[in-house]
Amino acid sequence: MKICVCSSRKNCFSALRRGVWLFLALILHAGASSAATAPAADSPRMTPVVRAVQTSAPAVVNITSTYQVESMRSSPLELFFGPGLPGFGALDRQPVKQRRTSLGSGIIVDGGKGLVLTNAHVIAGGGEIMVRLQDGREFAATVRGADSDFDLAVLEIAGAKALPSVGMGDSDDLMPGETVIAIGNPFGFNHTVTTGVVSALGRTIRNKNGAFTDLIQTDAAINPGNSGGALLNLEGVLVGINTAVDARAEGIGFAIPVNKARRVMADLVSRGRVAPLWLGIDVQSVDGRTAMALGLKEAQGVLVTSVFPGTPAERAGVLAGDILESINASPVRDRRDYLDILRNQAGGAALRLTLLRDSGLVHVEVVPSPFSDADAHTLMERLWGFGVRQGAQGVVIARVRGDGPAAFLRPGDRIAGVGGTETPEVSDFLQAFRREHASGQVLLQVVRNGRGYHARIVP
């Protein structure tokens, strides 16, 4: 770098003035050059992808969720002697609160109401949620509703006006091979654009928490931080919400179809949760003995043991004795799989069932109905053999059927949990029943006379 030493103060000011004018001239020249080189609307550089990004990118946001976790601070002695040294290891262990931050993406789908659609796992830690727009504006947000079974959440931006939003398309008319665009914030890099094609439709992926069905598979790069971001078509409208990447291979990502997201969002905004659904059947897993008795080649699927009157399954022609092999082309492997797949369905959409009947395949369509509290109470007394009510301390047994699978229970016993899920309110208990009603066995946490124990029932 060359350093100039002025001979007088006047000369210094003159040099400084010339430098300022030169700097401003350079800026104006750069602006004029960039304006002159901006591609025209009919330029071949203005591809459909570029137009779609310019239209929709302002509605894609960066989401930061900050929350606290508590851990135990280790004793310095453990650095030398290892954990668990008798008399020393726990001398100064203290709970320590640490702030952690998760990053993700979201899409403003209603600029007037400030509603943002994202993944439930992006905001799963709770705490403070901040939303940052492409133009640099930043707002606090609150959770209107979230459902981990669908991995969807709706946020509301507080005090924002005239927000950009993206149009919601129709994911039912997507075509394999169609070009799609993913926009998100992978690894904290704001508004990263990747392109690819629709690789397949109707995919199902499973993890320890259940099954996610009817997913869009794409080879558009989706990386950590893209979760909750937009999947667009070439018209610049939203067709999916990016949600997962398969770590086993490159170029395999998944998105939730916007039509399912639209139905889930309506429930989350109006009720704060997604209305549970049911078909109106009772099922049991096809085990080896059942498969042998029915002459099946393998033990897979669920056997329909009952069809309840006046339910969607009865109206669709499902019969007791049918073997349910798949729902929307997703294989039903056992009773747990049936529950997981059904739990990932949104109301209003018809399900395609493949049934094995008299050694032939039968295909039917059925629209699930809401699994109301009244339906849950009635079915619970039939399957589990008891009824419940809200007590002062929680959910208590109201009546027990003597010939039922839970005849050991007594009126007044408190049910603190079902299958590891706490049930402080009857609404929580009914929700747990909906999740577990077709399970082969159910673990109850029972409290009697102030003492708790676990009890297993086999419906």
Observed structural traits:
alpha+beta, Thrombin, subunit H, Pdz3 Domain, six-stranded antiparallel beta barrel, 26 strands, 22% helix, disordered N terminus
Overall body shape:
globular
Q: Enumerate the strands of the largest sheet in spatial order, edge to edge or round the barrel.
A: 1-2-3-6-5-4
User: What's the story with the biggest beta sheet?
Assistant: 6 strands, antiparallel, barrel
Question: Averaging pLDDT over every residue, what do you get?
Answer: 83
Radius of gyration: 29 Å
Name of the top-level CATH class of the domain at 171-271: Mainly Beta
Assess the beta-strand content as a share of residues. 35-45%
Number of helices: 9
Q: What is the end-to-end distance? A: 84 Å
Short characterization:
This protein has 459 residues and is an alpha+beta fold.
Give a description of the structure.
There is one protein chain. Helix 8 packs across helix 9 (426-436). Among the domains are: 171-271, Trypsin-like serine proteases (Thrombin, subunit H, Beta Barrel); 277-370, Pdz3 Domain (Roll); 373-457, Roll (Pdz3 Domain), CATH 2.30.42. The chain has a six-stranded antiparallel barrel. A six-stranded antiparallel beta barrel has the order 7-8-9-12-11-10. Strands 14, 15, 16, 17, 18 and 19 form a six-stranded antiparallel β-sheet that branches. It has helices at residues 9-37, 48-56, 77-81, 258-271, 288-294, 312-316, 335-343, 373-383, 426-436, and strands at residues 60-73, 94-110, 115-118, 128-132, 138-147, 152-157, 179-184, 192-207, 210-218, 230-232, 238-245, 253-257, 277-278, 281-285, 302-307, 323-327, 330-331, 351-357, 360-366, 369-370, 386-390, 395-400, 414-418, 421-422, 442-448, 451-457. The protein is α+β, with helices and mostly antiparallel strands. The longest helix is centred in the first third of the chain and has 29 residues, at 9-37. The model is unreliable at 1-16 and 20-36 (pLDDT under 50). The protein contains nine helices and 26 strands.
